[in-house]
Design brief:
The structure is a single chain. By secondary structure, this protein is α/β, with parallel strands linked by helices. It has two helices and 19 strands. A hairpin with an 8-residue loop joins strand 10 and strand 11. The N and C termini lie far apart (102 Å).
């Protein structure tokens, strides 16, 4: 260590002014709820999870699928749209606001890390930034999204990639740091199938 240069001193760290968004009791209740019903790989049931998130202040839409092993930091800083998929062992470290819009996907083992520390200061104060996953965006398996980032509509971050910058719409990104590799071309699924009408029995006699 060079004595002429400043050095880290973690004994000076003080997180008291950071806005956690909930009191001690609520945070403690969520800690155990998260451990039992979300992180726990032995709890396979999906339907109670949106209900539990709403009870703790999250906004959750319809058709949301949350697989086992998902770790969510603060549900009161979470907004999830309709038909969102969150894969096994995803880590939503949302100490800031996390917004996941309709039809977005977070794949297995992906991490959304909304907090960090100021490495330029010896006491390492906490930093945070919101993250937005716009409609149809996709965070691939094992990928990492840092605070302050927006994945624009239908942007795709490939498996194992890392981004600390916004991703443009309908673009596929890969690498560390992630760079654009090609356009994301979506095929038209065509019209939804029409249910067949039930066969009619013989007419009743007049």
């Amino acid at each position: 260590m060079n004595p002429s240069r400043p050095h880290a001193d973690l004994s000076r760290f003080n997180n008291a002014d950071f806005p956690l968004g909930a009191g001690f009791i609520k945070r403690t209740l969520w800690y155990f709820t998260n451990a039992v019903f979300f992180i726990n790989p032995l709890f396979p049931f999906r339907s109670p999870k949106p209900v539990l998130l709403r009870l703790f202040g999250a906004k959750v839409g319809r058709g949301v699928v949350i697989h086992p092993g998902v770790n969510i930091k603060f549900p009161w800083k979470l907004a999830i749209g309709n038909h969102v998929w969150i894969g096994q062992r995803a880590w939503l470290d949302n100490i800031d606001q996390l917004t996941i819009k309709d039809n977005a996907v977070i794949s297995q083992g992906a991490m959304l890390i909304l907090g960090s520390h100021d490495y330029k200061r010896p006491d390492y104060p906490t930093l945070s930034g919101p993250v937005v996953l716009e409609e149809g965006s996709w965070v691939g398996a094992g990928a990492l999204v840092l605070g302050g980032v927006t994945l624009k509509s239908h942007a795709l971050l490939s498996a194992g990639s890392v981004t600390g910058k916004n991703l443009e719409a309908y673009t596929i990104y890969r690498g560390n740091p992630a760079v654009a590799v090609r356009e994301r071309v979506m095929k038209d699924a065509g019209p939804a199938p029409v249910a067949e009408e039930p066969l009619q029995g013989p007419a009743e006699p007049a």
